[in-house]
Model the fold of this input.
Amino acid sequence: MNSKIKMPLIPGEYAGLQPGEARCPGPSVQDIIASDALPAPEVLRHANYEFIGDSDIPYQRYTSPAFFQQELDSLWPKVWQWACRLEHIPQVGDYYVYELGPYSFLIVNTPKGIKAYYNSCLHRGTKLRSEEGMGCAQELRCPYHGWTWTLEGEISRVPCAWDFPHVNPESYRLPQVRVETWGGFVFINMDENAKPLHDYLEVMPEHFRNWDLEQRFTELHMAKVLPCNWKTGLEAFLESYHVVETHPQLLQGTGDANVQYDLYGDHVTRFYAVGGVSSPHLEQPLSEQELVNSMLVGDRTVISDELTVQPGETARIVMARYLRKILGDKYRVDLGQVSDAEMIDTIEYHLFPNMVLFPGVSLPMVYRFRPLGTDVERCLFEILFLRPLAEGQERPDAPEVAMVAEEESYDVVPGMDPYLAHVYDQDTANLRAQQQGFKASKKPGETLGNYQEARIRHFHRTLDRYLARAGRGEG
Done:
């Protein structure tokens, strides 16, 4: 097996390209999926790229406390963000504490539906629930002085009420934030005048029409504090340009330089990386059988050495067929009509500002990146694995979050595939060095590729639009 990597071309060899052109080496994603045995759904059979500039992105956006504060004041209070899954609060009385920077919210399943409150007592400000995560209660009672509210947010008890004649029950209802749901996720928005969630999601409802994430359950939920700004962490997962240097072990079975990048509206972007192919960076592509043997999926315990590529077949066809059976049996679902692409490819959507979703079957992750308190250079990175829920199956209880210490590998999480954990560990090392390098650099900003890093530029363009609207006093 020859896995030598081609020498990279220098920029001057692309001098004939116009700024908006994207010329990736190797066959395109659309060329590859055109020969699949079970065709990809229509939403995967198009590309949607546009050139949106090539100026540098200032490093101060990742290091400046003032810029970070501007985001806390003008970005986060204006966007829809997912706070929890419906399975975190399945019964009346269940609640979930969600925290973002200095903000804290109580998402509560009430007799009148799901509501979300600012997690702060109206007496002297104490958090009604002090720690993030799941819980259950019949009332919301402050642990400091005992002021109490019903699940619907109505004040029901004030100790020594005789001393508070000025407390009008109607004026002391718990302040709410807007709540809507989609795909089994509970979203909140602090902006009372924000557009409906469906409009904010742009193409997502249509693209995910046949990827019903509500019919999945959380098999694994892990979190790790990263030594970087929340945008630094997020952007590492918006491009595959780093794979050849950071994850060379992936080149044998994954397209990287020929990943497809799509931009939609203000809030949604996508990348689409095909599996079961060799990286265009390899001097000598692997045979179809070698590709099968080097297959990488999220759960390697289901892979057998008995996979054989028959005449006329491709590695993609064999891999998809095998995984349909193995994963279908494991989760007791019928995957017979699921396309080859959905079985083995890495399909990743980013919903602005901080949610990343993989609707495929083999790598069914959801990511979330959040500012951690008010530290500009630390963030919380979460990974959820959403597995298909069999028809008639009782939904399993949502798992507790498995915390990974900064110095630990992701493989400490029970059930986490060690091979995939190593990939995340490689990313963590990069993020630490990058955040430090922002401040060490004499050059004031980062230079992005026009195509492979277009999603990062798109993200910053949308971020600027939110900050500009706030600067103009707009909603």
Q: What stands out?
A: Residues 418-440 form the longest helix (23 residues). DSSP finds twelve helices and 20 strands in the chain. The longest strand covers residues 375-388. Residues 123 and 163 are 13 Å apart (CA to CA).
